[in-house]
What does this fold into?
Amino acid sequence: MQIQILYFGLLADRIGLSSETMDLTRSLNVSEFRQILLNKYPFLGGEKFKIAINQQLAAEEMDIPLQAEIACLPPFAGG
Amino acid sequence: MQIQILYFGLLADRIGLSSETMDLTRSLNVSEFRQILLNKYPFLGGEKFKIAINQQLAAEEMDIPLQAEIACLPPFAGG
Amino acid sequence: MKKEHKRKKVLVHGPISPQFVADSIAKHQSKTDIGAHSLFLGQIRADQKSEGLVTGIDYSAYEPMAEEVFHRIREAAFQKYDLTCMHLYHSLGLVPVGMISLFVFVSSAHRRAAIEAVDFIVEQIKKDVPVFGKELVGEADQYVWKENK
Amino acid sequence: MKKEHKRKKVLVHGPISPQFVADSIAKHQSKTDIGAHSLFLGQIRADQKSEGLVTGIDYSAYEPMAEEVFHRIREAAFQKYDLTCMHLYHSLGLVPVGMISLFVFVSSAHRRAAIEAVDFIVEQIKKDVPVFGKELVGEADQYVWKENK
It folds into this structure.
């Protein structure tokens, strides 16, 4: 199962990537995905970020659907 | 005792004057002055208006000082 | 106690142009402690009256008292809110429908102060400033005296 | 239920000029049911950070989601307040200190709706729109990521 992950702002900056794709071996919820991300990029441990699935903010217990576009969003700074 | 009276907006329009002077035979408070005005211009009976003395809104019981500039102010319409 | 601010003339002749608004904004770009501008513009509506459609408002004022009250409103707003600067303009004379007769411009480091101050200032102006408005209606020389609610 | 309004692009490249604000105002002079315009402008402050003085903000966004959230905020404001029209603009890319990065423009027949709607809209934008800001500080290429409170 493939998902596309977009990184923005501080997260893109720290990771050094604005997007990547991941192949998952099983379906995950948001909380599990977040943990995989923190295992991969342990330096994100101190950062607050929200996760959007297909452009909607997602609760931690929400399952990630097939072909999802996942966005990792650091604190907003608009205005 | 002479006072100068200024009329604005609807009042100036109805009376046909923007100012006049009156010679008073004794000192008056605002309420008494208002009554003199209504006796002189009975068609103002139905109109609401405030009275300012020397550019300050005056309470009805306030005495009118010597050389006062009295302004008769219909409802405000600024903005 | 904050100091009293410079007296500025508020009453201007005729409508306030969008270009004047733009120039006022541009003048504030050098004030780098400002984070928020809040602006209010009063525009003349073509209200339907029993006598006909409003085509404009002819404003008059008890000018010295009006300027004094505008000044007091300015001072009160500076006391009440944390503001960087404030500019008020109100038209006298004829302002046709669709044109602007009131321009309130408040700047602050932060948005809350700016937005709340504009609300306060507009309410005070409507309530306390001796400005009078003759609403011109219909084709002939008819008019109705305006009254703020 | 009111109808859904036309989608309009909110994100624009670079600062929003005072002239653009003036042109937006001027376009509304033909809408003679409008009595009140309320405008909010966000301007970049030269804040003092431990790393130095802020010289500008470089904005980025999750653009499709940001546009979607701006659209939802517009619809919510139209539902909540009695408005004639509404225009929102937010900068992307570099906006130097003193320049404008947010322009909220709301028009209504009456002042209360216009003023309250702007307050609501600005709060929602700060809270919900995925826009990110890199505050450039000092002389070198230093920066700090901005975070709305």
User: Anything to note?
Assistant: The helical segments of chain C are 18-26, 63-80, 111-128. DSSP finds three helices and eight strands in chain C.
